[in-house]
TrEMBL record:
Residues 21-183 form the SEC7 domain. This is Pleckstrin and Sec7 domain containing 2. The gene is PSD2. CDD domains: PH_EFA6, Sec7. GO terms for cellular component: ruffle membrane. InterPro entries: PH-like_dom_sf, PH_9, PH_dom-spectrin-type, PH_domain, Sec7_C_sf, Sec7_dom, Sec7_dom_sf. PANTHER family: GUANYL-NUCLEOTIDE EXCHANGE FACTOR, PH AND SEC7 DOMAIN-CONTAINING PROTEIN 2. GO terms for biological process: regulation of ARF protein signal transduction. It comes from the Eukaryota.
Length: 498
């Protein structure tokens, strides 16, 4: 089941969002007299819009989220007014949450969906922590790629001390647990409306006549487990890969029955590695199965699988949530190319990590790693990685100076080892990112094959030289800080590398 750190992290993000919504505390009573500047006109407009959104007068359900989740005063007014139309009196939290989630599809950027849930939590007696816990419990009990399910006792234990320093009533938590276990949370989604909303999003992002934009699709269970789907995202590589699932979320070993090797046609597009059953077709729509097999590579690290010797040319891909996949390529050259391109895309586009959640010091918590694309320039991204590397190096030193009590089998020692493993891994990940960004900047080009050739030639020379390491192609994708959105300089078509 989900470990406590996930619950803490989700609530941490929501509580961070709460600071953006402080004005809502004044609005909850329904009075408009205490609003900033007494802006009656904005309030009246917000009320009108909220009413039209609730009764779908001139709007579709998929339009609602975009008006509630923006980070501006008017959107916050609209959201507060919209929530006032729900009658949660006499309802338990799980039933109120079910009613709310069925009202409209939670679409948009992760932060927008988070803000909407904050509005719900404030409307329902400020139940941030429990709302978060139910969302995560639902994913744990009913989601994909999960090993052992969370028990009721684990759910209760995970929430110890999170009710303003006190425990939640156990009877309440048991009722909530059983409610989610017996009936999963359902999300409002209408395919036709989703596609129309998607096209409108594209038009809003339109630049220079080209349709480009960002949408998000979910795995059908929880909008927070979102795959960022980039329309017209650059394809950085495609080819055959054979996949073996080695570890599930949090590094838990994949059950034996799901560890078999499966062959896919892999497409690295934007920050997603799509694993498709059919051969790559640039204009083909992704199937539901393709989306379920997709792997997000934000904050991921690809390395040669040196500890695996049963097959040749195998790379290890470790994701941000510490799932581990073994991927076999057709040749060593292909394996090295996949490693390089996955890591460079992750280095260039992964948004800076959130600060670690403040939780119990007894249990180590990994920080939340956002799936959104960075807004930093290439130079700023490099500086961010260098800062994280410095931080990790200092933390490793500090960590080793303060070992726990002598007993090597104690829980403290286990937590100590877990944290040390994390710090060393993160140190290596940021070192890889920094080396790749520095190599890209030295190459003074956004042409991916030229960057790869320059790096691989160095590797080849160190191994005794290998001419013709990369097969030449008619076109090569560009990779730049804008390339993820299909706006790369140089080659603007995806191309067909390798």
């Amino acid at each position: 089941g989900y470990s406590m750190w996930l619950t803490l992290l989700c609530c941490h993000v929501l509580l961070d969002s709460e600071s953006e919504l402080s004005s809502l505390e004044q609005q909850e009573g329904g009075s408009t007299d205490t609003l900033a500047n007494g802006c009656r006109a904005d309030c009246d407009a917000a009320k009108r819009l909220a009413k039209r959104l609730f009764y779908l007068e001139g709007f579709k359900r998929c339009d609602v989220a975009r008006h509630l989740g923006k980070n501006n005063d008017f959107s916050q007014l609209v959201a507060s007014e919209y929530l006032s139309y729900f009658d949660f009196s006499g309802l338990s939290l799980d039933k109120a949450l079910r009613n709310f989630l069925k009202a409209f599809p939670l679409m948009g950027e992760t932060q927008e969906r988070e803000r909407i849930l904050v509005h719900f939590s404030k409307r329902f007696y400020g139940a941030h922590t429990l709302t978060c816990a139910l969302m995560l419990l639902n994913t744990d009990l009913h989601g994909h790629n999960i090993g052992k399910k969370m028990s009721c006792q684990q759910f209760i234990t995970n929430l110890d001390g999170l009710n303003d320093g006190k425990d939640f009533p156990k009877d309440l938590l048991k009722v909530l647990y059983n409610s989610i276990k017996n009936e999963k949370l359902e999300w409002a989604i209408e395919e036709e409306e989703f596609r129309k909303s998607l096209s409108e999003l594209v038009e809003e992002q339109c630049e220079g006549g080209g349709k480009r934009g960002v949408a998000r699709v979910t795995d059908g269970n929880n909008p927070f487990i979102a795959i960022p789907l980039l329309l017209n995202a650059v394809t950085y590589k495609h080819g055959v890969l054979t996949r073996k699932s080695h570890a599930d979320m949090d590094g838990k070993r994949t059950p034996r029955g799901r560890r078999g090797w499966k062959k896919f046609y892999a497409v690295l597009k934007g920050m997603i590695l799509y694993l498709q059953k059919d051969e790559y077709k640039p204009d083909a729509d992704l199937s539901e199965v393709d989306l379920k097999n997709a792997v997000r590579i934000h904050h991921a690290l690809a390395t040669r699988a040196t500890e695996y010797s049963k097959r040749p040319n195998v790379l290890k891909l470790k994701t941000s949530d510490w799932r581990v996949f073994l991927l076999q390529a057709a040749s060593e050259e292909e394996m090295m190319s996949w490693i390089f391109r996955i890591n460079l895309v992750a280095a260039l586009f992964s948004a800076p990590a959130f600060p670690a959640a403040i939780g119990s010091m007894k249990k180590f918590c990994r920080p939340l790693l956002p799936s959104s694309s960075t807004r930093l320039s290439q130079e700023e991204q490099l500086q961010s990685h260098e800062g994280k590397l410095k931080q990790m190096s200092v933390e490793v030193e500090e960590h080793r100076k303060n070992p726990p009590s002598p007993s090597p089998k104690s829980r403290e020692w286990e937590e100590y080892r877990i944290k040390e493993h994390y710090l060393i891994y993160e140190k290596g990940r940021y070192e890889t990112y920094i080396n790749l960004l520095q190599a890209k900047m030295r190459a003074e080009t956004d042409d991916l094959e030229k960057i790869e050739a320059s790096i691989m030639s160095g590797i080849g020379e160190s191994r005794g030289g290998r001419e013709g390491y990369l097969r030449k192609t008619k076109s090569s994708p560009s990779i730049s800080q804008h390339g993820l959105n299909g706006k790369a300089s140089g080659h603007t078509t995806p191309g067909h590398p390798s």
